[in-house]
Amino acid sequence: MSVKERKERERAERERLIVRTARELAEQQGWDAVTTRRLAERIEYSQPVLYSHFRGKREIIGAVALEGATELAVGVRAATSGANSRRERVAALARAYLDFAEHNPAVYDALFQLDGGLSYAQEDTPEPLKDAFAALLETLAEVAGDGVDPGPFTETFWAALHGLATLTRAGRLPPEYAEHRVELLVDRLAMV
Amino acid sequence: MSVKERKERERAERERLIVRTARELAEQQGWDAVTTRRLAERIEYSQPVLYSHFRGKREIIGAVALEGATELAVGVRAATSGANSRRERVAALARAYLDFAEHNPAVYDALFQLDGGLSYAQEDTPEPLKDAFAALLETLAEVAGDGVDPGPFTETFWAALHGLATLTRAGRLPPEYAEHRVELLVDRLAMV
DNA sequence: TCACTTGCCTAGCAACGCTAGGATAGATTC
DNA sequence: GAATCTATCCTAGCGTTGCTAGGCAAGTGA
């Protein structure tokens, strides 16, 4: 049975290779450059191999998104755990979120801009996505304010961060006041 | 010379037809369905005719975006002009913005999600885009708060609205608390 | 009437996502 | 050790995309 196990291991390894390569390619040249042909060439297999691991390009994007969600959650928790006041925690959360979006634009797109075939905000939502939201909720719940439901409050704060992240990166917002905008968000939205 | 004038008129008319048709098709079936072939068929001309008006598909998206920017500005100004208090004006602005995004998803995408080849937040930014931002600024400047630059404040508020609009429509936010989220944004961000 | 310009269409290119079907290499059986 | 069977992977190709070259025909001016 060890032959079968070895093959399964190799197969899993190749799947990780596909996701990693897709991510690298997307970060280097954008998702438009991630074609099935180019991706296949980079992993040194033929195109149809991709389809033995994923239903299609969409599912590959989804796999990158899930990887990103896990990292985002880790990043946010790491940033907030080092802060001592509620105000500092919220600011750290905002900066960690925007940093992630800035330094991993392709992954961020896979998560929140592109169609990766994932379901959001539902029962069958994949665990990494739920957990990323939970990471935000943990810090934001304590600054929602009296009588304000932490869920919708987190959603609103998150939406604001998402707007800043996407509009800034798309060149729709001038970069000079970036820090000022974050301060505004933290000081006004959070009840600290 | 009247022959030449007639031809110019007809040409301008056909250009409007292209933009209008692209917009209709995009609203009906999404931008993915707006292929040059389908678009050409709908306007009852051949594909290359499109390229005698626009450099490519991107520029057609850009044209739809500019049309949308004008309408968005009109909508926001109409909504705010009917409100009597600062609080009401900001709330009306937020609702008008989100209504526009909800009822014209394809146009909204052309404006803020897709690449229409337009430049934003710069000197050479097309007038309709500048004016749409100005429409937001007019109402939001009066609630920025003491010592807060209205520009970055408007940018921040806008980003929050944009986040709500896109995440809601993409199914990333549950629809049930939509109104609650708007209230939060208005009550907290604006100094009313 | 003839030349010329203008405007449009047919046909085709390279690249896309995805798939059918055949070849080959390895495991299993006798 | 030879034969068969299975699983794995590749070649080739389909239909579609954005975009363009080249030719035809209708209308303009001499």
TrEMBL record, chains A, B:
Q: Which residues bind DNA?
A: 35-54
Q: Does the keyword Transcription regulation apply?
A: yes
Show the InterPro entries listed in the entry.
Answer: Homeodomain-like_sf, HTH-type_TetR-like_transc_reg, HTH_TetR, MT1864/Rv1816-like_C, Tet_transcr_reg_TetR-rel_C_sf
Q: Keywords of this protein's UniProt record, alphabetized?
A: DNA-binding, Transcription, Transcription regulation
All copies of the HTH tetR-type domain together span: 12-72
Q: Does the keyword Chloroplast apply?
A: no
Source taxon at top rank = Bacteria
Q: What is this protein called?
A: TetR/AcrR family transcriptional regulator
